[in-house]
Amino acid sequence: MLHGNTHPDFADVARTLRRILPKKSPGGAAACVYHRGEKVVDIWGGTLDASGTPWQADTLSISFSTTKGVASTLLHIYADRGLIDYDTPVAEYWPEFAAAGKERVTVRQVMCHEAGLYAIADMVEHGREMLDWDHITARIAAAEPRHAPGTAHGYHALTYGWLVGEIVRRVAGNKPFSELIESEIARPLGLDGLYCGVPADQQHRCAILLARGMEGPIEARRGNTQRILEGAERWQRRLAKMGFRYDPSESIAALMAPGMEDLDFNSEEFRAASIPAANGMFTARSLARMYACLAQGGEIDGVRLLSYETLRRATEQQNRGAGRVIPISMKWRMGYHRVFAVRAKVPGGFGHFGFGGSGAWADPQRQLAVALTVNSGVGTPFGDARIARIGGAAVRCADRRYRTP
Fold first, then answer.
1. Structural domain harbouring 201
2. Theoretical Cys-Cys bridge with 91: which of 98, 116, 285, 342, CB 3.0 to 4.6 Å?
3. What is the per-residue pLDDT across 45-78, written as a single tens digit (0 to 9) for each?
4. CATH at 8
5. Which of 61, 63, 65, 72 is catalytic?
6. Would residue 65 show up in a list of annotated catalytic residues for this protein?
């Protein structure tokens, strides 16, 4: 059963969400769509935990890499003010970053995943280190790139958030990243749930992650990690025999820190930390409204986050082809990637999807914004078919609406 509101023109989005909700197991989801500045879908259903507690209107859900789109938008806000230049070396804002030959790495190279600093496995000895902002940014500043910056691209699955976040913090007076998200995006847009570092008084709103292999006893999570590593080794051998250059070990190095399975993603400690590439806790309506602002040239309801010119620059495609970490073309913009949608084409769309199935994006051509949050399933590092199905339904509804007199 779904709750919330849906404009009749977008009834197919509600039907799609109803189909993707778990039928025989716990789990829930929320979807929100804006079209031409109007919120036309705001719905939710299912459960927020394994005991059957219903998903609520204000339920927050971990959205993994969907967080990168929010972090990127924050940096673009500071670029719009003239405080950050995309082609300036990162070390101009973060002097310690110049170590290990990185003095010429630019903000642009960081944002389009060309900095060569994706291997979190090279930087930490245990995943718990990721909970300490100062520690992890010091490790990144000291790290040596895996390739010459600008010569290739590889998805910075975990390191991206701290790279972008520390640049922003340096120009914003070293304020906590969580406070900057609140003051620069959430508060101006009147959002009800956009956190990268959940405050203690909001922890009760968080859905429990119910993803296989990522919750439950530590022993089970460690076993899942071992299976992933063994599988990567098998794929590496198979691909080498077939002549493919893609190396799965690069993906493992980017996606998995040593001991990362010891982290409890459902703990208050993990939710309270700021990991801007991975642990954002959002409502679908907050994500959708932020992207609705971007879909309309950077302004919604009289509130402007970005100038049209900065948004244009931020969303220009920067590279093409498969990368070292993800063996498909993501058509990277600065902090956003292409939009995948079932039975629909969104060539001008941009946004970010996340491990576990969440995602959010904008399509300026249609003035359309779509967001999905979930708490069950795993999928790929870029979501799964659920966000693509919701997005496809929204596009088709918008196109039919546009053609209707």
1. 2-61+191-210+280-303+331-403
2. 98
3. 999 999 999 999 999 999 999 999 999 999 999 9
4. 3.40.710.10
5. 65
6. yes
